[in-house]
Amino acid sequence: MTKSYRHGSIVGPVMLIGLGAVLLLDNLDLLGQSPWTVLLDLWPVILIAAGLDLAIGYRSLAGALVAAALALLVLGGSLAWVTQGKSQLASEIPGETVQVELNGVTSAGVELSPVASVLQVGALADSTYLLSGTIASYRDEEVTQAYQRTGGHAQVKLETAGAAVVPTTAFVGTSPTWDVGLTPTIPLDLAVHLVAGQADLVLSELNGDGLDVELVFGQSSMVLPASGRYDGRVSGVFGQTAVVIPAGLEASVRIEPLLATHTIDSDLRPLPDGRYVTAGYGSAENQVDLVISQVVGIIDVQAE
Question: Pairing mode, if any, of strands 153-161 and 207-223?
Fold first, then answer.
């Protein structure tokens, strides 16, 4: 009777090795695109590792070693393709221009919901538009735009539709990018929902009326709106969250780290209820009540 060889699954180690390798290549500036987009491309390696584990990994110690070696070989080849082969075939992503005119609007809510991309948001210099920018998406994606106005208030929503849950072959080249500018002339309630990728939000020139940033997998960095009294929430599942409180804005910050580590600028003093506040919080004209939650990763809060 042949005995099967039981061992720990190789899937977990392959995932950790792949994650570490991608982040190392990014730190060495050898990746050429967002590490989170690369990890999204590499997810089929998990299925391959699981299949090898089931097919030959449990038969013997030699089978387990062969399965691990084959899984690592596939991982290495995939990384080489992503970092070198894809760049050789890279072409400019065809981007589309999106614009929403201000037309007398006095306040607005803006929701930006890409599936997987690098999202860059800043302030517009042109007072003609409420929103203006360029969106370069995966080949199989369609960007939909919704606009509704009630009196002087407008609601704008940009989101991707028609994309696969994990669009591994939808694009060849650098990371798809949303580059969006918003008007600084009216109060804005901004919502950002991103499944995977990177969010770079430079909002210091905006007039804040609300802020909700949600990133499931990836890295978000933001400078908060310096004007307005508003509530904000920043949440993530796996990755890194960096928040900068600009000069002139007072803040109350509550951290919900779960398994994440966090660092807080020494200019924010801790309160008995768990919040951290700046010196002038409470009576300032411009201030934010912010909650930051992260399941796994790093939270960093700094004050200018």
Answer: unpaired
Quick check: 48 and 75 in contact, CB under 8 A?
A: no
pLDDT for 247 beyond 50: yes
Q: Is the dihedral of CA 215, 119, 31, 263 positive or negative?
A: negative
pLDDT tens for residues 146-171? 999 999 999 999 998 755 444 443 33
- pLDDT (average), residues 221-250: 94
Distance CA 244, CA 281 (A): 16
> For 210, left (φ over 0), alpha (ψ -120 to 50), or beta?
left
In this structure, are strands 207-223 and 229-245 parallel, antiparallel, or unpaired?
Answer: parallel
Closest CA to 109 of 53, 22, 191, 7: 191
Pairwise CA distance, residues 235 & 158, whole Å:
20
Structure confidence by residue, pLDDT tens digits, 175-228: 678 999 999 999 999 999 988 888 999 999 999 999 999 998 888 999 999 999
- Residue 187, both tokens: 């109060």
**Structure tokens, 219:** 């890295």
pLDDT higher for 199 or 29?
199
Can you state the angle between helices 44-52 and 61-80, rounded to 10 degrees? 160
- pLDDT band for position 237 (50/70/90)? confident
- E strand spans, 95-248: 95-101, 107-113, 116-123, 129-136, 142-150, 153-161, 177-182, 187-202, 207-223, 229-245
Token match 């006095």: residue? 106
Q: Helix (H, G, I), strand (E, B), or coil: what is residue 208?
A: strand
Rounded CA-CA distance 23/39 in Å is 9
**Please, which residues bridge with residue 129 across strands?**
101
